[in-house]
Write a structure and sequence with these properties.
Layout lengths: L14 H6 L10 E7 L6 E3 L7 E3 L1 H13 L4 E6 L17 H12 L4 E6 L12 E3 L2 E3 H18 L3 E4 L6 H11 L8 E6 L6 H6 L20 H13 L3 E5 L5 H10 L4 E5 L1 H12 L5 H15 L3 E4 L2 H12 L1
Parallel strand pairs: 1-3, 1-4, 1-12, 4-5, 5-8, 9-10, 10-11, 11-12
Antiparallel strand pairs: 2-3, 6-7
The protein binds ligand PBG.
């Protein structure tokens, strides 16, 4: 049966009706807010290409996390800018490293906030790559040993979840084994499984001071021309023990999220990355897009594609927007 008996507009005539048939509902429970922590006291430096986002000293990061928790956002993901960088990224697994101290402080003041730590070396190496350089290339097998040490060190500090973002082969297995052997079998791993080599990370590299000093990340992050390969990455990470898999970036990769949703049953995270934030904020600042509605539409599209969790710099904004829409 078709027109004129069928008229899809009938169920669009009133907001009440539209609410009743709405298929996707974004909730603050879906959100993770990224926090950048740097050394010092009482420091809050705005990131130029990410208006409204800051590098924070630990005390300020604690305040930020309190605010995030009070809004009802369940989780934050931490990124560190260390005191020193060296070829091995040793600041990443130092007992008194920036993230370790941050975890301890946040745990004390906001014990119910879900604390996720990004596990990678690029913020901690003087060359800015996500691993150890041997013979001019990022060496896989020595890097995953160090990543496992980093993850363990965060677990010891009290983190609730670790999120390796390096894209080395076999790192999930190494990290799982290390955590399990040291008594942290209950700490889950959120794997940045399908992480593409993307120009959308530009602003983050300013924020985390982690741009590579030579070359690029194409020998470890995925080629954005590929989608079947994302499935292979995800299959392997699940086999190795990932509890949550991630697709990153989000907006140009909704096809990947949808495909992964169809194939796998574990929770999927999507990272709405820095460049996606910067691009939208620039248009908002120019008055070219309506802030609230554009954020609502974008984040909803990521959930509609199949993501359970969205890591986004818009997390705080969308809570207010959702309160207005639902309230
Ligand atoms: C670290 C890491 C990056 C991001 C998250 N973890 C940057 C990169 O791989 O260069 C990007 C996040 C964003 O752009 O918002 N490896």
């Amino acid at each position: 049966m078709g027109f004129p008996y069928v008229r899809l507009r009938r169920l669009r005539m009133k907001e009440g009706l539209r609410r009743m048939i709405r298929e996707t509902r974004l909730s603050k429970d879906n959100l993770v807010y990224p926090v950048f922590v740097r050394p010092g006291e009482n420091i809050k430096v705005e990131i130029k290409s990410m208006p409204g986002c800051y590098q924070l000293s630990i005390d300020k990061a604690v305040d930020e996390c309190k605010g995030v928790y009070d809004l009802g956002i369940p989780a934050v993901i931490l990124f560190g800018i260390p005191e020193y960088k060296d070829p091995y990224g040793s600041g990443a697994y130092a007992d008194n490293g920036i993230i370790q101290r941050t975890i301890e402080r946040i745990k004390k003041s906001i014990p119910d906030l879900v604390l996720i730590a990004d596990v990678c070396l690029c913020e901690y190496t003087d060359h800015g790559h996500c691993g150890i350089i041997k013979n001019g290339i990022v060496d896989n097998d020595s890097t995953i040993e160090i990543l496992a040490r980093e993850a363990l060190s965060y677990a010891k500090a009290g983190v609730d979840m670790v999120a390796p973002s390096d894209m080395m082969d076999g790192r999930i297995k190494k990290i799982r084994e290390k955590l399990d052997s040291k008594g942290f079998s209950t700490v889950p791993i959120m794997a940045y499984s399908a992480k593409y080599s993307s120009s959308f990370y530009g602003p983050f590299r300013e924020a985390a001071e982690s741009a590579p000093s030579f070359g690029d990340r194409k020998s470890y992050q995925m080629d954005f021309c590929n989608s079947r390969e994302a499935i292979r990455e995800i299959e392997l990470d699940i086999e190795e023990g990932a509890d949550i898999v991630m697709v990153k970036p989000a907006l140009c990769y909704l096809d990947i999220i949808a495909k992964v949703r169809e194939r796998f049953d574990l929770p999927i995270a999507a990272y709405n990355v820095s460049g996606e934030y910067a691009m939208v904020m620039a248009a908002i600042e120019k008055g070219w897009l309506d802030k609230d509605m554009i954020i609502y539409e974008m984040l909803t599209s990521i959930k509609r594609a199949g993501a359970d969790m969205i890591i986004t710099y818009f997390a705080k904004d969308i809570v207010d927007i959702l309160n207005n829409i639902d309230g």
